[in-house]
Specification:
single chain; 283 residues; mainly alpha; 11 helices
Length: 283
Amino acid sequence: MSYENINSTLGADLRLTDRPRPALVTLARLNAILTPFFARYGLVLAFLALWQIASTRGWVNPSVFPPLDVIVSALWSSLASGALIDDIAISLQRSGIAFAAAVVVGIPLGLVMGQARVVEQALDPLLQFFRQTSALALYPVFILLLGLGETSKVFVIFWATLFPILLSTIGGVKEVDGKLVEMARTYGASRLAIFRRVVLPASVPAIFVGLRLSATTALLLLIAAEMIGANKGVGFQVMNAQYNFQIPLMFAAILLLALLGLLANAVLVLLQKKLCRWSQPGI
């Protein structure tokens, strides 16, 4: 065999040796996926595992803190039998109406107050006064004025969700870069054009912060509103299960509320990414 043949054969063998093996490639891909996942959710998974082990081994009272598999089983049974479906629909209707009303009122009012100093000076003392007053403290007043029906429940959720949206909108308008506004004026843009092309787009990220806070607040107030004078809803099921000492069902309803909150936050984050692609890094 000639020198050239030996050299080419050795080169081919070395090239085959340098190729990454499929198992190593798969392991590297799994590592790239799992490392960020455990970095973000590792503590949550550890907490859930500790809960399951502590309840199963008897480290805590399982009648007070049931194992997670029992809670998930109770949630699945309630959903499969349809017992919680009506409650979910009613709760989403109450919080959805209140949240939509807060968006309709809070965003336009915040845009006006952020741009018109006279309006802000007139309304800000009243806004600060009511903002410091707990919505739960005002709930008996709402019941006296609006009755014990749906209106008072929706209104107390609306009242609590209005202020995060309103304040975030005002802050977003005020944080708009003045140089951008001045540049638009220099190029002859009208006030309406400046508002549409500069102020409103620059305020959208801050508005979404308020929307996400309000979505969480809506679910928190929903529980309190449904605990008083309600016979339907997820919050009612939490109290009803506690009264009847159905602890797994109580935790199942709480878990359901947490999942609804996570879903609402995920939807708003996705919508923010769609509408604010220009503000995302790397885009």
